[in-house]
Amino acid sequence: xxxxxxxxxxxxxxxxxxxxxxxxxxxxxxxxxxxxxxxxxxxxxxxxxxxxxxxxxxxxxxxxxxxxxxxxxxxxxxxxxxxxxxxxxxxxxxxxxxxxxxxxxxxxxxxxxxxxxxxxxxxxxxxxxxxxxxxxxxxxxxxxxxxxxxxxxxxxxxxxxxxxxxxxxxxxxxxxxxxxxxxxxxxxxxxxxxxxxxxxxxxxxxxxxxxxxxxxxxxxxxxxxxxxxxxxxxxxxxxxxxxxxxxxxxxxxxxxxxxxxxxxxxxxxxxxxxxxxxxxxxxxxxxxxxxxxxxxxxxxxxxxxxxxxxxxxxxxxxxxxxxxxxxxxxxxxxxxxxxxxxxxxxxxxxxxxxxxxxxxxxxxxxxx
Length: 368
Ligand SMILES: Cc1cc2nc3c(=O)[nH]c(=O)nc-3n(C[C@H](O)[C@H](O)[C@H](O)COP(=O)(O)OP(=O)(O)OC[C@H]3O[C@@H](n4cnc5c(N)ncnc54)[C@H](O)[C@@H]3O)c2cc1C
What we know:
By secondary structure, the protein is α+β, with helices and mostly antiparallel strands. The chain folds into 2 domains: 5-80 and 148-222 and 336-367, FAD/NAD(P)-binding domain, CATH 3.50.50.60; 87-145 and 224-330, D-Amino Acid Oxidase, subunit A, domain 2 (D-Amino Acid Oxidase, Chain A, domain 2), CATH 3.30.9.10. It has 8 helices and 23 strands. The protein has helices at 13-24, 61-80, 99-112, 122-128, 148-161, 209-216, 300-308, 357-367, and strands at 5-9, 28-33, 49-50, 84-85, 89-93, 118-121, 136-140, 144-146, 165-168, 170-178, 181-188, 193-198, 200-203, 224-234, 247-249, 253-257, 260-264, 268-271, 278-281, 285-286, 319-330, 337-340, 347-351. The longest helix has 20 residues, at 61-80. The chain is elongated and about 65 Å long.
């Protein structure tokens, strides 16, 4: 195999997983991350749920890479000491109208290769989760929770150990094709500039992947819209009497933007690794700017209403605001888009890598 020089734009979990894979295969790898920290985009601001692959249409990249990725992620975390717990998940129907949707997702998940999905009755739900109200639930034993920050750091560490050159505080600002090479213009954190010439490029720039795609092909029509997900938390499950053992979800939500449907797996109540905190969120709302994490946030009453739909006695005074993340929604496409730029062989775009991208990252790297 001919060794190639490879540039990766973006130091989130996907860029780092690609760096690791290519460096291990003996290629010369350069990864550029504009922030001073890896995982500063979506990767460090997610729920950290290792999804089993229930929601996505059978045969889609999301379905295939999520199922494979969850398995690879579990093996990776266990062999490299990344915190990973498998509490399982309950998608709870709070009214009888919601029960047919549980059956729909059980069938779809099973067709996708998710093992162990089972609909449980109200009585079983009370046994599994005495604190949660509902008329039935879909139980998914494979759902897990990963420490996303530790996962990102471990991928960076292993990539460097395999010989990849990882750079932080380096923003790609222009790309030019010269003969068979791609020349990347880099703006460094200290305002100095550099250039890097490589055989192949992977665009793993998350929210900005549409803008990077246009740098090499101005005719590229992809558009990524920022969909913010905000969180609150019950800092003490014990104090707020919200002890839960599973990740608790309602049914998925759809919001509309410019006449198109934007899917979200919905809000959840989530136990956290190594603490007594329960995370509530994420909301789903289109925002104007790709870096607007704080402006015009939902009030606590919004989170309370959601949490109370599972446990009516919860109190607003126990809720605290938490972080927000912004999803890279590829407008008009519900699946991951992984493709070579039609005008530039050797330049691969990874677009719309939103949930379940954290779960699927290792499978995405394996796939490409
Ligand atoms: C609120 C929320 C909750 C989520 N929950 C889950 C979940 O529970 N489970 C799950 O599987 N997935 C979840 N996801 C999705 C998951 O986080 C993403 O799919 C995944 O992190 C995508 O990784 P990435 O590397 O493609 O993108 P990112 O992590 O966004 O990384 C892209 C990187 O590119 C860098 N960059 C951008 N432009 C440039 C440039 N010009 N030059 C250099 N660097 C650049 C950015 O700074 C960024 O670090 C969630 C996402 C959000 C926002």
